[in-house]
Specification:
Helices cover 69% and strands 0% of the residues. The protein is mainly α. Helix 6 packs across helix 7, helix 6 packs across helix 11 and helix 8 packs antiparallel against helix 9. The two termini are 24 Å apart.
Length: 205
């Protein structure tokens, strides 16, 4: 069941920010922004600073590959909201067909061998036992992935294991229509940090 506090629990600066966004985009504010903006100093702002660093900061992986890792983790966790969002973000950088193939069969995906190896590793990490062996690590290294690049991919996946569960707990459904278009424009244009009006003006506690 969806948490109703996400519709009525924000302070004035946040409500005004949402109202402007709805009017300009003619779309509902994405649920993840509502979650992050609610008492944002406790969770939303620090979490999104971390996401911004991992998803848009210096990395061994392209933006599209990082979005693919996010979409893949979310799909394995069956989080409808995050899967639809990050599948669209990854497709913006690559193609719908590539992303669909990677989600369906990571080992055979039409991507760099390093990406396919990491997707297979993340698939094991998200599996029922969640047990990674030395052989799993050696297989990734054999594909040309160094330890730093693997650590980055695992950190991205870990973040999305967290936010997948948060969004499911909040009752967020799939991101669709104009709301998906709005989210894609925001994330692919400005990144992951909360709007300045919320970060600077909202008390968030």
């Amino acid at each position: 069941m969806r948490l109703r506090i996400l519709d009525r629990g924000h302070d004035l600066p946040t409500r005004l920010t949402f109202a402007v966004a709805r009017r300009m985009a003619r779309a509902e504010v994405p649920e993840v922004i509502k979650v992050a903006a609610y008492r944002h100093r406790y969770f939303g702002t620090p979490f999104h600073v971390l996401v911004q660093d991992l998803m848009r900061g210096p990395s061994s992986w392209t933006v599209g590959e990082r979005e693919l890792f996010a979409a893949f983790t979310s799909s394995r966790n069956q989080c409808q909201f995050c899967t639809t969002a990050h599948q669209a973000f990854a497709a913006f950088c690559t193609s719908d067909d590539l992303v669909a193939a990677a989600l369906a069969a990571p080992a055979a995906a039409p991507v760099r061998p390093q990406v396919a190896a990491v997707l297979t590793f993340l698939d094991t990490l998200a599996g029922p036992s969640e047990r990674i062996t030395a052989d799993d690590v050696l297989a990734v290294r054999a594909a040309g992935v160094d330890d730093l690049a693997l650590e980055e991919a695992v950190r991205i996946s870990t973040l999305f294991h967290v936010i997948n569960r948060v969004m499911d707990a909040a009752g967020a459904g799939p991101l669709e229509g104009r709301s998906l278009d709005l989210a894609r424009r925001i994330v692919m244009g400005a990144g992951y940090q909360l709007p300045p009006t919320i970060r600077w003006l909202s008390r968030g506690h």
